[in-house]
Amino acid sequence: MSIKKYRFILFDLDETLFDFRKSEAVALSKAFELYHLTIDDDIVKVYNDLNFSLWKKLEDKKITKDVLVVERFNLLFEQYNIDLDPAAFEDDYQRILSEQAYLMEGAMDICRYLKRKYDLYSISNGVAFTQHNRMRLSGLKVFLSGHFVSEEVGYAKPDIRFFKHVSQAIPSFQKEKALVVGDSQSSDIQGANNAGIDVCWYNYRGETLQEGLSVNYCINHLRSLKKIL
Ligand SMILES: [Mg+2]
């Protein structure tokens, strides 16, 4: 059942179409291997916590992406007394990460289904080179009409200027006919709310919606999009 007539579907990438957690875990382990280091669950947990808090700072515009990507390894290596250049490690990690293109369950199927009826675009705060490469390797690229990565746009979700750029770049775009699909409250839902665009929350983690945010639809599996679209 189609509830509202949409034309443009704006998909977040990490943890919405891409299984970023899996890609990240594999890339981290391979990067450590490259430097003849062993990684354990403890290091992964610390890395995830450091990375998460730095991404929050990025969303709050307290740091830049360039600082974030190096600082996470700088802090990690400090904590474990690892004598490595964090910038060089980040370069290797990013290259390896760009080669990991694991998808969320149902991602390929839902893109194939939606492509017949809608114009699909990606909207991502990830690193441009990595996202483009993973898009190509994953096989999703053929379903998407365009890609918007914050690094290239100049602004990141939830900044309204990111969505203004997207609105202006998509031919015949009307925000009333657009739907954002994403997992993140702070970037996707906040961003869609800021821009006045409908949003479907892919809440597969079963989070509680923060006060002040609103969603039009909520799903816990990508296949449920077929009931909405
Ligand atoms: Mg995401």
Essential attributes:
229 residues; alpha/beta; Rossmann fold; DNA polymerase, domain 1; 2 domains; 6-stranded parallel sheet; 10 helices; 48% helix; binds magnesium ion
Q: Please, could you describe this protein's structure?
A:
With 229 residues, the chain is α/β, with parallel strands linked by helices. It has 2 domains: 8-18 and 102-228, HAD superfamily/HAD-like (Rossmann fold, 3-Layer(aba) Sandwich); 21-97, DNA polymerase, domain 1 (Orthogonal Bundle). Helix content is 48%, strand content 12%. It has 10 helices and 6 strands, in the order βαααααβαβααβαββα. It has helices spanning 20-34, 41-59, 65-79, 86-97, 107-115, 128-138, 150-153, 160-169, 185-195, 225-228, and strands at residues 8-11, 119-124, 146-149, 178-182, 198-202, 217-219. It has a 6-stranded parallel sheet with strand order 3-2-1-4-5-6, sandwiched between helices. Strand 4, helix 9 and strand 5 form a beta-alpha-beta unit. Helix 2 (41-59) packs antiparallel against helix 3 (65-79) and helix 3 (65-79) crosses helix 4. The radius of gyration is 18 Å and the shape is globular. The protein starts with 7 loop residues before the first strand and ends with a helix. The mean pLDDT is 94. Residues 12, 14-16, 182-184 line the site of magnesium ion (MG).
